């Protein structure tokens, strides 16, 4: 069945693309077209940006009160929750991820709106004890118009984690979701509309990154760009945003190390090593895609890991038995398979997987087996480059120093994990990892309360938590004279 989703939300109204054109949205489990989305144009993006500018400067939203914004955000959370199962089913159908993951994403998005509804009414700013009868203080103010550009691996959450803090802090917004997964975003904007945000405060323009995203990152009326996606795209956006000195936050790629010492709890570490790379089909920026094993446990650990990886049930995310879904698109599947071929060509040892799965009704879907390579060289491209799929590279290390050196030897610095029963060693190693999101004896749990973001080429700035709120604010110092009289600096 084809769902008609071909609408943009601009200045409080659902409208067609100015070109009248649409693009196809598919279910990656079977390749079928499930919707037609509006192919927004540069003019659509400009109109949305102007609406957001007007709503901020003249429409009153720039002077809105935190308590009123909190109330609206809380309503959004309730509205998402009321449609929770519909949201989950939509993301599974559009993204492919297993339903249990989509359901988790929905609760995460609901919590983001509630978290920021609460946070925006809490105390903020500072006062200073300064000389000269001056009362000095700092207040936080909204930045203005935010342009948000997002990717497809967590379609609902990625958008919620930008919309909620941006609006909570009093900004207006134009959002461009990933072309591959616009459906839950359209539903999310239905919730924003229903909650009662004034026209122009939140605008949605679906369409190509090279057109709509490009306009958002260049347009002089946009004050900040918040981007989640690949590092190369992030670099392009940063360059395009430079001409108008926009504020930027970039959540980019990763190639994160998961280090297991010989003294770790064996079964726990195996279990998390699988979860680290194969959750969400490996389409996770923070995936533990490089497993570093201490030599004493290298052989038994690999044997157990491969045994369990081969048992992972790969299928349509809508099937409750499914543990790992399809990759997002045919193009992405082909890219991942090309990396697997590259690994073979580079001389890495393929331990399991490596193929597209086409049996048992999976023929038209974009399914790839959980794949594990053993490698002994740090300079291989499959060690250095982000594959963004179910492909794990395993390396052996001897000493703590070697583990740290290998862990830090890529251009990325998003996440990392350490498994050991030696508490002091765990802390020592984690402190040495050049990464923004880290775990000890676990992998992947993250919370809306804590900051999310990367070192090195994994990004700039932080989302989520109080850091992610501050990222949508400007800082203003105010100096108040407590003795209102002439300064007398110049003779009369
Ligand atoms: P992508 O960079 O291709 O696309 C991301 C978004 O940017 C899409 O909406 C796309 O349409 C838009 N875009 C593309 N070209 C553009 C341009 N020239 N100007 C403006 N916008 C443009 O990334 P992707 O393939 O959708 O996502 C995968 C990448 O995202 C991976 O590298 C992954 O690690 C990263 N990611 C990072 C995080 C994080 O929090 N750090 C989270 C999820 C995904």
UniProtKB/TrEMBL annotation:
Catalytic-site annotation from UniProt: 251
Protein's UniProt keywords contain Transferase: no
Please indicate if the UniProt record lists Cytoplasm as a keyword: no
Name the UniProt key words of this record, in alphabetical order. Oxidoreductase
Which Pfam families does this UniProt record tie to the protein? Answer: Aldedh
Give the Aldehyde dehydrogenase domain ranges. 14-478
GO terms assigned for molecular function? oxidoreductase activity, acting on the aldehyde or oxo group of donors, NAD or NADP as acceptor
Return the InterPro entries for the record.
Answer: Ald_DH/histidinol_DH, Ald_DH_C, Ald_DH_CS_CYS, Ald_DH_CS_GLU, Ald_DH_N, Aldehyde_DH_dom
Family to which the UniProt record says this protein belongs:
Belongs to the aldehyde dehydrogenase family.
What PANTHER family does the record point to?
A: ALDEHYDE DEHYDROGENASE-RELATED (PTHR11699)
Protein name (Swiss-Prot/TrEMBL)? Betaine-aldehyde dehydrogenase
Which species is this record about? Brevibacillus panacihumi W25
Classification from the root reads: Bacteria, Bacillati, Bacillota, Bacilli, Bacillales
């Amino acid at each position: 069945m084809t769902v008609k989703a071909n609408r943009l939300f601009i200045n409080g109204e659902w409208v067609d693309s100015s070109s009248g054109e649409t693009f196809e949205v598919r279910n990656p489990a079977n390749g079928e077209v499930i919707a037609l989305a509006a192919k927004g144009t540069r003019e659509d993006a400009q109109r949305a940006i102007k609406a957001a500018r007007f709503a901020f400067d003249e429409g009153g939203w720039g002077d809105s009160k935190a308590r009123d914004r909190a109330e609206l955000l809380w309503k959004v959370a309730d509205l998402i929750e009321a449609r929770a199962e519909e949201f989950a089913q939509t993301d599974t159908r559009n993204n492919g991820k297993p339903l249990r993951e989509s359901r988790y994403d929905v609760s995460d998005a609901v919590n983001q709106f509630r978290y920021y509804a609460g946070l925006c009414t809490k105390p903020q700013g500072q006062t200073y004890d300064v000389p000269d009868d001056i009362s000095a203080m700092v207040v936080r103010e909204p930045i203005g118009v935010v342009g948000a550009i997002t990717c497809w691996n967590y379609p609902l959450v990625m958008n919620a984690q930008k919309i909620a803090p941006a609006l909570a802090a009093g900004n207006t917004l134009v959002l461009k979701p990933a072309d591959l997964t616009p459906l839950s975003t359209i539903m999310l904007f239905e919730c924003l509309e229903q909650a009662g945000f004034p026209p122009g405060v939140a605008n949605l323009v679906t369409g190509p990154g090279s057109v709509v995203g490009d306009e958002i990152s260049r347009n002089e009326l946009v004050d900040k760009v918040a981007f989640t996606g690949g590092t190369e795209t992030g670099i392009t956006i940063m360059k395009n945003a430079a001409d108008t000195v926009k504020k930027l936050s970039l959540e980019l790629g990763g190639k994160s190390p998961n280090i297991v010492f010989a003294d770790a709890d064996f079964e726990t570490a195996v279990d998390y090593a699988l979860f680290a790379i194969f959750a969400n089909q490996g389409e996770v920026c923070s995936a533990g895609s490089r497993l570093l094993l201490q030599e004493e446990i290298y052989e038994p650990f690999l044997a157990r890991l491969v045994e369990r990886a081969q048992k992972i049930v790969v299928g349509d995310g809508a099937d409750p038995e499914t543990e790992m879904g399809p990759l997002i698109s045919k193009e992405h599947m082909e890219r991942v398979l090309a990396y697997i071929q590259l690994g073979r060509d580079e001389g890495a040892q393929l331990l399991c997987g490596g193929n597209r799965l086409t049996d048992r009704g999976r023929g038209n879907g974009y399914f790839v087996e959980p794949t594990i390579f053993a490698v002994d060289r740090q300079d291989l491209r499959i060690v250095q480059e982000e594959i963004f799929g179910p492909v794990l590279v395993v390396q052996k290390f001897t000493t703590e120093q070697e583990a740290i050196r290998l862990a830090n030897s890529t251009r990325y610095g998003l996440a990392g994990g350490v498994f050991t029963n030696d508490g002091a060693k765990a802390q020592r190693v984690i402190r040495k990892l050049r990464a923004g999101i880290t775990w000890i004896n676990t992998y992947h749990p993250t919370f809306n309360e804590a900051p999310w973001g990367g070192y090195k080429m994994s990004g700039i700035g932080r989302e989520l938590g109080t850091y992610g709120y501050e990222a949508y604010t400007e800082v203003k110092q105010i100096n108040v004279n407590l003795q209102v009289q002439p300064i007398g600096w110049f003779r009369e």
